[in-house]
Structures are given as C-alpha cells and as structure tokens.
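Today's session is about reading a structure prediction critically. Students often jump straight to the picture, but the first step is always the sequence itself: look for stretches that repeat, for charged clusters, for runs of hydrophobic residues. Only then move on to the predicted structure, which in these notes is written as discrete structure tokens rather than atom positions. Here is the chain we will use throughout the hour.
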Amino acid sequence: MTAVLVVESPAKAKTIEKYLGSGFRVLASFGHVRDLPSKDGSVRPDQDFAMDWEADERGDKQVRAIAAALKGADTLYLATDPDREGEAISWHVQDMLARKGALKGLKVHRITFNEITKRAVQYAVAHPRKLDTPLIDAYLARRALDYLVGFTLSPVLWRKLPGSKSAGRVQSVALRLICEREAEIEVFKPREYWTVEAKFLTPPGAPFTARLTHLDGKKLDQFDLNDEKKALAAKAAVEAGNFSVGAVEKKRTRRNPPPPFTTSTIQQEASRKLGFGAQRTMRVAQGLYEGVAIGGETVGLITYMRTDGVQMGREAIMAIRDHVKSDFGPDYMPAQPREYTTKAKNAQEAHEAIRPTDVERTPDSVAGYLNDDQRRLYELVWKRAVASQMASAEIDQTAVEIADAKGRATLRATGSVIAFDGFLKLYREDTDDSDKSADDENRMLPPMNAKDPLRLTDASAAGKPGTGVSADQHFTQPPPRFSEASLVKKMEELGIGRPSTYASILQVLQDRDYVTLDAKRFVPQDRGRLVTQFLVSFFERYVDTNFTAALEEQLDTISDGRADWRAVMRAFWDDFSAAVAETKDLKISDVIDVLDEALGPHFFPQKAEGGDPRLCPNCQKGRLGLRLGRTGAFIGCSAYPECRYTRPLAVPGAEGEDASGGFKVLGTDVTSGLEVTLRRGPYGLYVQLGEGGTDEKGKPTKPRRSSLTKGMDPDTVDLERALALLSLPRLIGVDPETKEEISAGVGRFGPYIRAGSIFQSLEAGDDVLALGMNRAMELLAKGRAKIRPLGLHPKDAVSVDVRKGRFGPYVQHGSTVANLPRGVEMESITLDEALTLLVEKGKVLAPKKGAKAKGRAPAKKAAAPKAEAAPKTAKAPAVKKAAVKKPAAKKAPAKKPAAKKAPAKKPPVPGKAV
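Below is the predicted structure for this chain, in token form.
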C-alpha cells in the first residue's frame, strides 16, 4: 500500500513519517490553504451565504505538492489537528484536490490523534473516519459570521467614527469588558474603615493576634468603625478589658486538587506563574505538542493544547496513579481515580485535557533537551496533570473567641496548619490571593482551652509606647483591571469565544491600539473607549455578553448536528443588516453628541478646586467638547474658529497628566506667559507653546512646537527642557576654518547639526540640547566626507557638489539635484559630467511645467538653450540618450484623440468587468 498523509505542521510531518514507515509519504499543509478573500462580497447573504474561497501562493503550492505525491498512491489520510479548524483544513485540502482531479480512484480517510506518539498515530491510521460534516458547518458559520460582522460593521465605524480601525464579533465584546471595568474604577469612591487588633499572651507566654468582632453586644460590620474617633473609642474599650478564652473551635477541611489544564487555564496559570502572555503560552505549547528532539528521536511531550475538556484517557490516568504511588508513596494516591467535568459555559469535551504524553518523562529528565520557556511550561503541565490524581490536602483550622469579662468587647483569632499536604506537596494553584491563602494555611495558634486567662502584651517592653492594641485605617479598593489571565477566565465564564481564539483576540486588541498592557493589566486607550461607546450606543445588542454567549451556543448546536448553519445565519443576518441600515442616515455630528455626553465624565472629570471642567482654558468662554478630525478624535473649543484651542485625548505613558484628561502641562513660559504642554500627535510626542492665535490680518497662526527626539524619555521632559526644545535651532559656535556658524536643531528626519550647506544627523547618544563644539566638529567631518566639491557652475558661479545620499550618490547645484547613473562612483564623476546630468534633469522637468500650463508647446522649447549653453563633455553618450527621449515626449499629444472618444462609450453593465 502506498499512502499520503497530510498534517498541518512540517515538524509533525517528519516525526509521523518515522512512525509509519516507508509505505507512507507525510506532507504538511502549513495551516490553512485557503481563506475568504479580504474584499467585500466574499460571503453573499442574498445567495444563501455562498462563499468564495481563495488560496494564497503558499497554500496553492502545498496543494500542488500533495497532488503530485498522490500520483501512484491509493489512499489519502487527512490528519490535521483534532479540532474545528483542523477539520476545516482537511475539508479545504480535499476540495482543492478534487477540483484538480487528483482524487480519482483514491480512498480518502480522516484521522485524528490527541498526541504525537507512535502508538497514537498507528492507532489513528487503523481507525479512520469520514470528515465531520457538522463540525465543518460550524466552521463555515463562524467564518461567515466573523466576516460579515467585520466587513459590515467596520466600514460603518470608518465613516461615522474617523480614526477607528475595526470591529469584531468577539473582539468588540472583550474590549467592552475592559472598558467597563475601567469605567468602574474611575467612578469608584473609596470608603474609609478601621480595624482594631490586639496582641495577647497565653498563660505559658505564647503570643498571638486577634481582631475585634463585637463591640457593646453588636457585631461589627466592615464600615461600623468608619472614622478615627470611633476606632480610637473601640481601641480604648479593648485596652480596658479583662480577657479570657471563650470558645475554641477546631475542624479539619479537605482541599481537592485542580483538574489538568485546558487551553484557558494553561493561559491563566502561565500568566500568573511564568509571566507568559497568551500568545507566548500557545506558541511554546505548540512546540511541545509537535515534538522535541530527545535522544535522536522527535518526541511529542504534551497532548493537543487547544481543548476545553478536563478529562484524561483511562490509560493516562492509570499511568499517573502508578507514578504517584511509586514516587510519593501509597498515602498520596487516592483510593479511586479522579474524574473531572468542566464547569465552563459551552464547553466541548471532545478532547482530553492537556497532559504529558508519558508521565515517566519527568521535567528533570527532559530539561536538557528544552529551552527555558519549554522547560518551564512543560514542568507546569506535568505537575498539574500528576497533582490532579493525587490525594486531597488536609488542613486543620482553629478559631478562638476571646471574651471580655465586662462584656463590652469580643475578639476572634484564626489559624490553620496543613495536617497532610497531599497534592500540595507537588503543586499549588495560583490565584489573585495566593500569597494570602498560603499565609493563612501556615498561621498557627498556640494551644488554648476555654476559660484560659489572657493578657495584652506590653508594647513598651519592645521599646514602643502604649499597649499591644492597634487601630488601623483602611480604604476600600476599586476592582482590579483585567490581566490576560483574568480576562480569559471571564470570557470563559461568560461563554464568549473558544479555546483557539482567546490568544488572538487579546493580541488584536493590542495591535489595534485599543488597549495597552501596563504592569500586565489591560488599560483601555481612548480610541478603544470611543469605539466601545459607539457600538454600545448604536449596536448594543451585538456587543452584549448574553447575546454573544447565546450565539456561541447556537454555533455549538451546529457542530453537534442539531441545527442547520444557514438557518442560524439567516436569523442573525436579518436583524444585523437591519440594525446597520438604521445608521445609514446617521450624521457624524449625531455620533459626536452621543459620545460627548456618554464619555464626558471620563474626558472632563470634576476638578478638585471646583469650577466647570469643560471651560476652555484658552479663551475662558467656550465649552470644551469631543471633536472628530480625519485622523481621529480630539478635544476642541466650541468657540472655533475664533478660539483654536485643541488637545489630544491622551499622552500614553506620561505621568502627571492634566486632571481634565489629555496632555501633560509642564508649566508657564515666563517670557511669553503661555502654557507649555507635552502632547502626542500623529508622528509622536512633541512640546507646544500656547494654543496659537491670529495674525494682524486675522488669519489663524499655529503655535510653536518641537518634536521629542528618538529615545527621549517623556517622563524626563520638564519645563526647562521643553523650553530648550522650543528654542531650537540653537547656536553651538563658529567653525574656525570656514567661519560658518554651527547650529543644532530637530528636522523631519530627527536631530541634526548644520554649518552652511552641510547637514549631518546626530548619532545615538548625542543630545541635541547639550551637544558641544568638539563633538559638533567630529560630526561635521563625517558630513563633509559625504560631499565632494566639483567646481563652480559656469552660469552663476555657484558650487556644484557630488553628495552621498540615503538612496545613493547625487550631484547638486543650488536646489537642483540629479542622481548619478547606476555604476558611476561619486569619486570618479567630473564637473563636465555633473553639468550634463543637471541639464538632463532640467529636460526631464520641463514637460511637467508644460503640463501645468495645459500642454503649451513653448515649455518644451525652453530646454533647448540650456543644452546649447552646457559645455561639451567626454561623456557624450549620456547627452545623446536624452535626445532619444524627445520623440517619445512628442508622442504624448497623440493620446488626446483617444480621450475625446471616451464620451461615446456606453455605461458599464453592472456585474461585468470594466
């Protein structure tokens, strides 16, 4: 038998070919071989959602290679990944091969394996199946949905909200979660509360700490002690008390191990424990799944990493239990194997959890074959899978109530100790309060019995005044921003997205500049908040978490074969297209008004000193509001054009931003009395003096600005440094040889120095504000090395030079430049040759001048006298070449008759090529 087997990755192909032997040829598809073209009309709802597929160059090349390999073969095995995307790739490959006629007389089988091991691959080949049609239908529905939402909603954004980039079915919902969390943080008002703690000693002298829980017969709630006066009164009551042990409560609790990893949980735990982003985690996991060279053989170390199932195969469970018994002892192996079921919404449990393919390949035994990322992630997977089949941890918890003989105060002390570590011996799951939990488990209380007398510690014995009672002030904290781990967890809980999409969704939000990661937490940018508010205001249903989760459930019913994908698409499209149509007559001014009102508290928060936060600081009359320009949103004054005050929405990363949101105020220039600010523009950060105004004729004038140079930290730009930038160019000194002034400034291509006609860019480490004379002379020497004077032009006695430019050498006379022909070195060009090139440059430019004059003939003749005036050179052929071009130029008018015929053409027929 001769067979061809197709996988996705070339790394897998080599490994699997070794497993199957000489009767098989294994080729890779390199992922998807075709996709929907990125143009409108690739999905046609009016034709029952017909789709156009297009193969890129790589996909077409791979399919041709597979078709060539099938010549002489009798069987094709489609062995792409065991998920929806893998099923779709197999379907695409089969369809493209069928269209090429490459499958005639061949048997076509679909096989899947959850791990790349010899046993798993050989078993899959022996148990083939057909393509899963419902799974392919679910892929088609998701692809069509994402395409239609993106290609229908994004153009609405571009037209109604300039500066926005894209919208997506799931991406926009994830962005909304981030933005709404930020809004919660902004409106959060911290509340003050106090706690009272006391340090006691038991009769033998053992210390412990207890917290006040009851005062004057009333249980204290969190905010009952909400100011210092009440807290100090409670503290005094404890100090005056006479305490003894009231009751001692002991109980043993059991903590069960967490299940093995799914796609979302491995992303969460790798983020918390290893500091990996979702994309990085999946990239490293892909390498561990596809295989690592160990002892001369490529071995897949973990099972397939895109899964939301938490169950493991029976054989794997028993192997792990045997390993636990032999390595940790029988006490660490539970009596029965542990069976897990997922709690995630819309989970598909078709695949195993992520686990090691062989538990005997311990992290230590394979560490030498792995890079650092692979080693750390494999250790995480291995420990989590093994711990999931270990015994529960047992924890002894103790709670002691401490009563005042006078009945005024009651305190409580808690402690716990691990009685049996169980799975904690190998693995402890990280959570947001992991450190606190670990402290609680290891906080022990001294032995105590009911009615034991207690006494407060004497703080003065430790050199501190007062008793061992303390009153501590606290403030409630806002909800934390989402991290990658917590956002993935939230999306999974809500049933939004699928395991294979989480990493790409988070990356797209960052690529679109909708969010940034600050201290591993998502911070929405103003562009992202504008997009979210626009969608919430005009397409609320389609960024609603419940609607998106319900749609995911419908898509899952398609993959189960319980729903027709076209019926689901029709129901969605009817409502969605109607919602888009309602925005057809929506004016940008209407959008601005809605966004201005909704986001006003964010852009114009109340000032601590009071007053109207929207009052224009420039004219003191106009009202600040949201405005939209071609490049996006900004803040502007309502008194425009009389007042031209504007500011960008934000300066990302700049501390000390103006309380009104936006730019950073650096101070006031004492000379002009104008405010100096740090801002962000389309080309980066810059400093600005004032807001501009009008000249004597009433025409608007731009304010003075200066860009920050590359590498300049915005946090170090203070008023003094900003004024220095605004004063550029600055005089450095005078060249002692040429007597030319040397100055430094910032231009289009960055900081530079200038002496006469010589410009030289500054190098890394040079500070345009502090550059001295010695360094300036060094840089000018480099600049002069790029210039070779040839002599004076005979017409006006102005120097003709040959210079080294960014795109090659060129000659220059005044403002006229001409590139040197290819192969001509700047060291070999003569003055006469340079003059000829400059003349030819003039001839090339002459027709352009004539064209501006609507084709007048005299413009062409103007070049003739220049040619006669130019001296003859040894390089005559260059001149002759230019003469040859003249007839071609003369032919240009011949096109005019054709242009005249244009009106006679019939209008194009819709649907036909024009």
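Discussion point for the tutorial: The chain has 26 helices and 37 strands.
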